[in-house]
């Protein structure tokens, strides 16, 4: 297709703008989260530039210094905010680009005090930041998302209880599951949950903390291997596809979200995101968006939230939509929004935190995102190398994002490529060439 061709109507994912009622109370079905207090709400929008009373630049803070924090910092700085990061790593992606970097642990009392004093509002870039630290910050500054929502996302047991409570209205349930916290619960697992996947309730990511089990004996052995920590056992579902929805919700309850993106994982790690409207039937996409909005609203969520979905093969033409898990922050699968949308997930994170209006995002180009793992920095003999970026940057619509991590390691997320173009076919063709030239996993592995 020529560069002058108009954008195909199918490429632009229609935005969803929803104006919500004033902030509802947190879902009562989740005791661990509901026990934490609600965060403070800013008295008005935090506009970028010098504060009129103090003259100090209005500063947005982030807990954590990873790549998501770096892209938040970039978005905030472009809009004229100063930024501050609390992150113990001296050479962190976000710390390296932020105005201020407090090189202290996330639960360090002095670090939290310094961050609160430096900032006008604070967000988080990874879900395992201690909820108690967010609670402490919230006593002094607006914090979004709040400790309660982050605590819920840190624990699959609480998260699934919330999804189950929401399913009554959203109609989108999670995979059949059982909580395993004791030997008695292990023994009582219904046979129809097997074969299944045993997942630790806490600290799981990129497929870590998960074991596939085929029968009761394997389940027992797997729980022992996971040191008998609290777990959930999920029925192993026949997946047709995986999707995620990124939503932003403001202090006033208004929310906007992107069209669902289709995700391909390799070895438990996101490898490819397909972002164009034809990737999902419209009725199903709207159900996923509505379920995401319901999940956020019932949590009184403020900030950017990503909810992952499965489409399960149940013999029907569309398949059954199932909710998997959520991340209380921007998501790897939403990185394409930087290059393919007029407002990115990080722009929306800034707007939500600062109490600014949330513009409905518009996707102007179809896109494919390819994750760049540290593996790419090693040749077949295990010698380190620099990937041949010149070979792929020569192609149209290829956008390189590297996160500034000083050392490549196998499986480490070092960056990503977003490929944009005038049509889905053009994007797929370039992406296939990029995959071949760099030796990345295929687009649909
Ligand atoms: P993580 O926190 O590691 O992303 P997930 O719960 O998303 O954990 O699981 C990782 C991957 O494992 C999913 O993206 C999916 O491919 C697969 N998976 C997880 N749960 C199930 C399930 N119940 N049935 C089939 N596949 C699953
Ligand atoms: Mg996941």
Provide keyphrases for this structure.
single chain, 445 residues, binds magnesium ion, 23% strand, Rossmann fold, alpha+beta, 3 domains, ten-stranded antiparallel beta sheet, 18 strands, D-amino Acid Aminotransferase, Chain A, domain 1, four-stranded parallel beta sheet, 13 helices, Dna Ligase, domain 1, globular, disordered N terminus, binds adenosine-5'-diphosphate, 27% helix
Put the structure in a nutshell.
27% of the residues lie in helices and 23% in strands. The chain has 13 helices and 18 strands.
Percent in helix: 25-40%
Number of domains: 3
Task: Give a count of the beta strands, DSSP E runs of length 2 or more.
Answer: 18
Detail the poorly predicted runs: 1-39
Question: Would you give an account of this structure?
Answer:
This protein is of the alpha+beta class. The protein folds into 3 domains: 40-143, Rossmann fold; 176-235, ATP-grasp fold, A domain (Dna Ligase, domain 1); 238-438, 2-Layer Sandwich (D-amino Acid Aminotransferase, Chain A, domain 1), CATH 3.30.470. 27% of the residues lie in helices and 23% in strands. It is built from 13 helices and 18 strands. Strands 1, 10, 11, 12, 13, 14, 15, 16, 17 and 18 form a 10-stranded antiparallel sheet that branches. Strand 14 and strand 15 form a beta hairpin. The radius of gyration is 22 Å and the shape is globular. Residues 1-39 have low confidence and may be disordered. Magnesium ion binds next to loops.
